[in-house]
Amino acid sequence: MRCELKNENDTSSMAEKPKRLGFLIFPGFPMSCLSSAIEPLRAANEISGQEAFKWTLISESGQAINCSAGLPFQPEIALKDVSDVDMLFLLSEPNGRFENPSPSNAKLRYLVRHGTHAGAVSGGVFPLARAGLLTGHVCSVHWCYRTAFEAEFPEIETTDDVIILDQRCRTAAGAAGAFDLSLHLVESALGEAVMTEVACWFQHPLIRNQGVRQNTPAFRTHNTADRLPSKVSQAVKLFSENLEFPLTTREVANQVGISSRQLERSFKQATGQSPGEYYRQIRMRAARQLVIHTQNSLASIALAVGYANLASMSRNYIELFGFSPNQERRDIGQFRINRNIPVP
C-alpha cells in the first residue's frame, strides 16, 4: 500500500451528500470499537475537505452509557427519536439487551423497513440478532463469542471473516475489523486514494477485504493459529468443528493424512502440547463462552463440549482457568477484568 497526498484541486472524490451513521451503544460496549469506526470517517472528512460523513451517538434511553473501560459516554439522542440515519451500527458486549425490548426492537425493525441499513461491530451482533435483523444474512462473529452466538442463534449463518460487507447488513469482528469496515465506507464514498491516505494517517498496514479470516491465538505459543504448520493447523480446525463429539487423535491424524505418531510429534514441536491437551483447551474455552454469555445450564454446556457430566468438565475448567464454572456464573456481575473475560 503506497501513501500519497491527495491533490487539493482533485474534485473526483466529492461525495454527493453526507452519509449519516448512527452508533447505538449498549452498557459495556468496547470503546476501541467505537473510536475505530468513527476516526477513519473523521479523517476522510478532513482529507477530502468536505463533510462526507456525519455520525451520531445513540442509546436506548438517551442516557449516558458506560463502556467496557468504565468510562461514561453521553449519547446525543434516544433510539425512539432516531429518524434520519443511512446506517445504524450496534456496539455491545454479548449480553447487551434493551431495557424495554419490545418497543426498542420494533424501532430497529421500523428503521430497517424504511431504508436504514443495520449492522454491528463485535458483540453488537447479539442484540442485532435478538431483534431479528440478522435472519437471512451471513455475519462476522468474533472468535471470542462465536460458540456462544451459535448456541443462541443456530439458525444464523456465521463466518470467521473479519468483515462482512453485505450492503444491507455490515458486520465486523473487533476494533481492527471496525476500522477496515469504515475504510471500505470511505472508499465507496470518496474513492480509493482517499481511503488509502486515511489508512496511512493511522499507520493501518493492511486494508482487509471480505474473505480475510480472523487471527486466533495458538494456545501457549507466541504464534497465531494461521502460522502453525499445515497439518497442525488442519487438526486445530477439526478440533474446533468437533466439540460435542470429540474425535480421537487417530481419527484426526487420518483426516489430515499423517500417522498418530507424526501428529503427536508435530503438535509437541509447534505448541509444546499433545493434540489431546490442545483439543481440551479449545473445548474449555468454548465452554467458558457458554458459561459467560448464555443462560444454558452447566450440565448442558458440559454435553455441548463433549463431556459426559459436569464434574468431569469442572475438573478441566478449574485446571485451565483457576476457578469452577459455578464460581464463574456466581461472579459474572463483577467487573470483567477480575476474571479476564474478553470483550474485544
Automatic annotation (TrEMBL):
One Gene Ontology term of the molecular function aspect: sequence-specific DNA binding
Q: What InterPro entries does the record tag this protein with?
A: Class_I_gatase-like, DJ-1/PfpI, Homeodomain-like_sf, HTH_AraC, INH-QAR
Give yes or no: UniProt keyword ATP-binding: no
* Entry keyword set: Transcription, Transcription regulation
The keyword Ion transport is assigned to this record: no
Pfam families the record matches: DJ-1_PfpI, HTH_18
Q: Which residues form the HTH araC/xylS-type domain?
A: 233-331
What the entry lists under CDD domains is as follows: GATase1_AraC_ArgR_like
Protein name stated in the entry:
Carnitine catabolism transcriptional activator
Which gene underlies this protein?
cdhR_5
